[in-house]
Design a protein that fits this description.
With 369 residues, this protein is an alpha+beta fold. It folds into 4 domains: 39 residues; 87 residues, conserved putative lor/sdh protein from methanococcus maripaludis s2 fold; 90 residues, Beta Barrel (Elongation Factor Tu (Ef-tu), domain 3); 62 residues, Helix Hairpins, CATH 1.10.287. The protein is 27% helix and 37% strand. It has 4 helices and 18 strands. A 6-stranded antiparallel β-barrel has the order 2-8-11-10-9-12. The protein has a 5-stranded mixed sheet with strand order 14-13-17-1-18. Strands 3-5-6 form a 3-stranded antiparallel sheet, with no helix packed on it. Strand 13 and strand 14 form a beta hairpin. The longest helix is centred in the N-terminal third of the chain and has 39 residues. The radius of gyration is 43 Å and the shape is elongated. The two termini are 74 Å apart.
């Protein structure tokens, strides 16, 4: 027979096993319940079948600074063309520049024979001195009553004509020498030594290079990011390590069918004429402005033609919104339309959402911290 002491041990051990089993079963059921709750409240695919709100994470749409650097390769070209024509008829003595030469402002381009024009100016000055003296005599005679008003007026007219002749002679003499109006590169030359010029005939085509333009070829998806006055930096193959500063002054209105790029022109100061047309390089154009924005992960169909987001309403329901996007930079997307500042946009869980779904919202995303 088992004594009473051993019997008590057996009973206590059985009760301990029962209690331990119940405890372990309870813990297992609790863990299962926590797991189910976690899955239901963190996974939309688990919450929807049991009719519970869809778990999502949201951020508040805020105005912030967006900064983007747009890179593009390009080529230097003249900022504008200057066409020079002959102003007087004369023999060409010398043309000291060739096509492709870089010239400074005031550099000599053409020297014409000025012999006749100097003589004409000397004669005009002598004639002006004579008519000026004649006018003074007539005025003195009029004061004494010996000259009529008509005679004085005739002398005044002759003096004015003589002065005009001097001005014209000076103008003609000046135009026997053609100089560059600005720092430029000679693009075309149609005048040669020993020729006789004719008024209005083309002589030179110059490309102005101060400022000089960088024609940066920007991809078409960045067309909405380019604005006049944006600043940029340019590195060139011809001057490695040297950074040239520029500003956007114009942009092409059409996209190249082959490259799918459009031209953006940066104006660069070039007082030492180091940069000339044809030099290639790389431009970095900075786009920075304040905008209403949300993380780009909130946007559904980000590259399509119907971009949308889900807004968590005050009724804790999902409301789909069609948006119009602006700048996309640093993981953020500018919202031009469709969402108001302060509204909460879904950034996680939106791919499983339907319009008007009930939501279980967690507002603790990093954007709100």
């Amino acid at each position: 027979m088992i004594d009473s002491h051993e019997a008590r041990k057996v009973i206590i051990r059985r009760w301990f096993d029962i209690i331990l089993g119940v405890g372990l079963t309870g813990l297992a059921l609790l863990a299962l319940a926590i797991t189910i709750k976690y899955l239901v409240f963190t996974d939309a695919t688990k919450a929807r079948p049991v009719g519970l709100p869809i778990p999502v994470q949201t951020v508040e749409a805020k105005v912030t600074t967006l900064h983007e650097v747009i890179g593009a390769s390009g080529t230097m070209l003249e900022s504008r063309d200057a066409f020079l024509t002959d102003r007087v008829v004369a023999k060409v003595l010398k043309v000291p520049v060739e096509v492709g030469n870089v010239v400074k402002q005031g550099d000599l381009l053409v020297q014409l024979d000025d012999t006749l024009f100097r003589s004409a100016l000397d004669h005009a000055r002598v004639e002006r001195d004579h008519t000026s003296a004649q006018l003074q005599r007539m005025l003195a005679l009029q004061a004494k009553g010996f000259a009529s008003a008509v005679e004085v007026e005739q002398a005044r007219t002759a003096d004015a004509a003589a002065e005009e002749a001097v001005v014209q002679a000076e103008f003609n003499l000046t135009n026997t020498k053609m100089v560059s109006p600005a720092p430029a590169i000679v693009l075309a030359r149609t005048i040669n030594p020993d020729e006789i010029t004719s008024v209005g005939s083309p002589a030179f085509k110059l490309g102005i290079i101060d400022p000089i333009y960088m024609d940066a070829q920007v991809t078409e998806e960045k067309m909405g990011s380019i604005r006049m006055g944006m600043e940029g930096e340019v590195n060139t193959d011809g001057f490695p390590g040297v950074i040239f500063k520029g500003k956007v002054v114009k942009a092409d209105g059409s996209v190249n069918d082959l490259t799918r790029c459009f031209g953006v022109y940066l104006s660069i100061a070039n007082p030492d004429e180091r940069l000339i047309p044809g030099i290639t390089g790389y431009a970095r154009i900075e786009n920075s402005h304040m905008a209403l924005a949300v993380p780009s992960t909130a946007v559904i169909d980000p590259v399509g033609d119907r971009a949308t987001v889900f807004v968590a309403g005050e009724d804790n329901r999902a409301h789909i919104r069609i948006i119009r996007r602006g700048l996309m930079a640093d993981g953020m997307t500018e919202l031009l339309d469709g969402v108001q500042e302060g509204e909460h946009v879904v950034t996680a869980g939106q791919l499983e959402l339907h319009d008007n779904d009930r939501l279980f919202v967690n507002h603790s995303g990093p954007w709100n911290k």
